[in-house]
Amino acid sequence: MITKEIFVDILALYRQGKSIRAIARENRISINTVRKYIRTPDLPHYAKREVRPGKLDPFKDYLKQRIEAAKPEWIPATVLLKEIRTQGYTGQISILRTYISQFKPKTKEEKPVRFETLPGQQLQIDFTTLKSGKKKYKAFVATLGYSRYCYVEFFPNEKVASWRQGIVNALNYFGGVSKELLFDNAKALVVQRDAYGEGEHKFNDMLLDLSKAYAFRLKPCKPYRAKTKGKVERFNHYLKHSFLIPLLTALRPTELAADVDLLNAKAKVWLNDEANCRIHGTTGKRPCDLFRHEIPQFMPLPALLPIIAENNVQTGPAPVSGKASAVLNLQPSPRIFDELLQRKESAA
Predict the structure, then answer these.
(1) 92 Rama class: left (phi>0) / alpha (psi -120 to 50) / beta
(2) CATH class of the region 122-339
């Protein structure tokens, strides 16, 4: 038996053209296992099993006490390893380092890790909270790794259903599917880290269903290293200061509310006319120009996509295409904003 995560990865790699032997080698499973699950149309189902305590669990209280007692200084992992070894710890230092890294004080802001990807290789996604005064605005952001071509959609929350709609609408906006999806460790996406062993995480069923339908691979950021998806992180700052703040400032004299519909109407225009047509600070080129090189490398959108309720229960198939904005893109026309302003000026 394999996990659901490995199952959808097998299907994604197979649909991307990888050989059965290469898939088996990458997932460290047998060739016959790969063949078996390529022929299986549905996700494997397992009885819920008891979670076994990790090797480090009995020593976590001790480690917390030692770290707290040493503040503001820091005890290296090598020293702590020697101490818990005498108490019976048999695990590796890598497990210890991963655990105690969450308690280490940050002396300076961590810089985003820059790396380049091939056209059509990677899509980075994120949910960002943009603050203006006491107001908070939730925005789903998707950025293509090669071209930096972006998609933005505002939501009232960042529940599982919002993540799903954002991913689906972004892929329809791009008109194709990248080979992998990079994301951080949001609870709506990663149910349990290291559920099947170190580095083998349990994902939300919604995400697994989308991976199966679209054939993209799932790539979570490493713990405490969410900024490895630095391209989308940098865009979040740009989104706030180049879109949201100017828009809110313009709305104040009109007394119009910046609700989700209004934000999405203006964001759509802003993406097409400004964000995706500007000279990018890192590449020195316009995202819309580089995007042309990505389009031929995309995998096609699926003909059918499962409808998944907010409780992750599959209820039936729904048609999807690259132009299916009537079904999936619920954003209003960009003219709404201008019409609202005209009504306000006429009333004055």
Answers:
(1) beta
(2) alpha beta
